[in-house]
Amino acid sequence: MNKASILVVEDDAPVRNLITTTLKTHEYRYLTATTGETAIMEASCHNPDIILLDLGLPDMDGVEVIQRIRTWSNLPIIVISARSEDSDKIAALDAGADDYLTKPFSVEELLARLRATQRRLSVVQNEYLTVDSVFTNGELRVDYAAGCAYLGEEELHLTPIEYKLLCLLSKNVGKVLTHTFITQKIWGSSWDNDIASLRVFMATLRKKLENRPDSPQYIQTHIGVGYRMVKIG
Asked: What does the pLDDT look like over 21-33, one tens digit per residue?
């Protein structure tokens, strides 16, 4: 597997040095930024494979950086932050972050997250982007080749993770997928943070997919087990 290019957005010098030293030791290419504006400029100019993003930047909140990058790019963003409240994680994930690590973190977990993200990028390229492959279920239509999903005539505006979840569920329609199975496929691991993130992403996906989220038509929850896409008709 070719090593990804990483944009490290971190204003705390000791943490930034730890991350960049780790990346260099494991032969990753990397760029650094210490402000949100610089991060956005570096992302647009150099198009890195992955962004590691701190939320507490001196010029703007990291959530705003995510939102601005998401207006033109779906590149994976892994948040690394000292903020551990669920509300902070939800805000970052809702804005379009793909993963969330809480400081302090272990180097081993950071490397595992990077490897998992690289595997997901390969899956997107080799599995989901299949030619002449369209899934239809009721009013839902997923065009894997185009990377788009529609509900009736309206295109669904999904984050990268929401789209990956929808693809995974649709490719296994009628089957109950466990939390562990889903997180392994989406994040490449089953850390506690992944299970929490999964619940957030499933909730936001439902809001976009279901006309009545309180009475879901497409995605059924199996409490304590996982989720299933229901075959309509």
From this structure: 999 999 999 999 9
Q: What is the pLDDT of residue 4?
A: 85
Cα distances from 66 to residues 101, 143, 151, in angstroms, run 15, 26, 26
Q: Span 66-91, mean pLDDT?
A: 88
Contact 9, 40 (CB under 8 A): no
Q: In sequence order, which residues have a C-beta less than 8 Å from that of residue 139 and are 6 or more positions away?
A: 151, 152
Looking at the structure, do residues 91 and 187 belong to the same domain, yes or no?
no
Query: Given pLDDT bands bounded at 50, 70 and 90, which one contains residue 147?
Result: confident
What is the reported pLDDT for 191? 66
pLDDT band at 131 (very low <50, low <70, confident <90, very high): very low
Structural domain of residue 207, as residue ranges?
131-229
Domain boundary (93, 125, 157) is at 125
Instruction: Assess whether pLDDT exceeds 60 at residue 91.
Output: yes
Angle of CA points 96, 101, 103, to nearest 5°: 135
Q: How many residues does the chain have?
A: 233
Tokens 């890195």 locate to: 48
Residue type, 115: R
Looking at 101, 125, 149, the residue that finishes a domain is: 125
